[in-house]
Amino acid sequence: MSNSLSNLEAQLEALRHDGENAIAEADSLERLEELRLSYLGKKGQLSVILGMMGKLPPEEKPKIGAIANTVKEAIQTSLERQRTSLESVKIRAQLEAETLDVSMPGVFRPQGRVHPLNGIVDRALDIFVGLGYTVAQGPEMESDYYNFEALNTPPDHPARDMQDTFYLSDGNLLRTHTSSVQIRYMEADEPPVRVVAPGRVYRRDTVDATHSAVFHQIELLAIDEGLTFTDLKGTIKVFLQEMFGDLPIRFRASYFPFTEPSAEVDLQWNGRWLEVMGCGMVDPNVLKNVGYDPEVYTGFAAGFGVERFAMVLHQIDDIRRLYSSDLRFLQQI
């Protein structure tokens, strides 16, 4: 046996020994892949040793080839064994990390509450939708026509002084009531009409305990043949009974430019009369403005401030509390 043959045999045996020891100590799949490439890759240590076989006599090459295959199989076996072991360890660690202890107490999160204003709007709309009304929406920035003129309030009308308005530089304004939604709806739809319009409105009021420059209204409108003030009274009575309970109500003569006759609605609350709504029969001029024939159709309208209802029902002493987002207050509702 030549020295060259003995040398290659020794190198192959050392390669097997070192490889199996290194593979057994590998602590990750990434490290295991590095060892595979180091020992069995195209440029790995086994390939380098086999490259020396070219110097051997032909009769000695089969013996070295057989030894090399044995070494290669031993290293591959070690690699597969260690890979299986490492994958099992990885799976066990993942299962332990993802295991849920169903007996542990959950993380407490306080239950949210509906804001008082949203609660009033939701209750009111639920009542009116149950009476057959459709919810309608409109823009908060309005033209003078929809906010005033179409509602029987021309530029020189003294009723404009009743509502101090926010005018914008482009000639538009921030709506002072949601009645403008009724005009837009009637322009687009033929009678019969039954709509309820909730929304935010704006007036140049001095902010105090009972006034705000931004507040919310809900208005209703019904147009059909033969509607009378009796239908208006019956509708309002049903609505107020659903909101406040079976309490005495009264109607007082009042004035609004877009209704005739007009009335204020009072509710007997905690032993005293409390004004809660305005209402009336739709003025014939308003019907003409939207193309309805007042000789054929009549209608009624009513509206109320959401904040006032919230303050009464929740016994709130200052309207500003509704906009403060103070959790100490909201958690009491």
CATH class category name of the largest domain: Alpha Beta
What are the segments in which pLDDT stays under 50 over at least 5 consecutive residues? none
Look up the CATH topology of the largest domain.
BirA Bifunctional Protein, domain 2
Q: Which homologous superfamily in CATH is the superfamily of the largest domain?
A: Bira Bifunctional Protein, Domain 2
Count of the separate structural domains: 2
The helix-strand sequence is HHHHHEEHEHEEHEEEHEHH
Biggest sheet statistics:
7 strands, mixed
Number of strands: 9
User: What is the arithmetic mean of pLDDT?
Assistant: 88
Beta-strand content estimate: 15-25%
| CATH arch. level architecture of the largest domain | 2-Layer Sandwich
Spatial strand order of the main sheet: 1-4-5-9-8-7-6
Helices, by number, come to 11
CA radius of gyration is: 43 Å
Distance between the termini: 100 Å
| Helical fraction | 40-55%
Net shape: rod-shaped
- Secondary structure category: alpha+beta
How would you describe what is shown here?
- It is a single chain.
- This protein has helices at 3-25, 29-40, 45-50, 61-98, 116-130, 144-147, 179-188, 229-244, 284-289, 306-313, 327-330, and strands at residues 134-135, 141-142, 173-174, 193-202, 214-224, 249-256, 259-269, 272-282, 298-305.
- It folds into 2 domains: 3-98; 116-330, 2-Layer Sandwich (BirA Bifunctional Protein, domain 2).
- 43% of the residues lie in helices and 20% in strands.
- The chain has 333 residues and is an alpha+beta fold.
- The model has no long low-confidence stretch (mean pLDDT 88).
- It has a 7-stranded mixed beta sheet, sandwiched between helices. Strands 2-3 form a two-stranded antiparallel ribbon.
- It is rod-shaped.
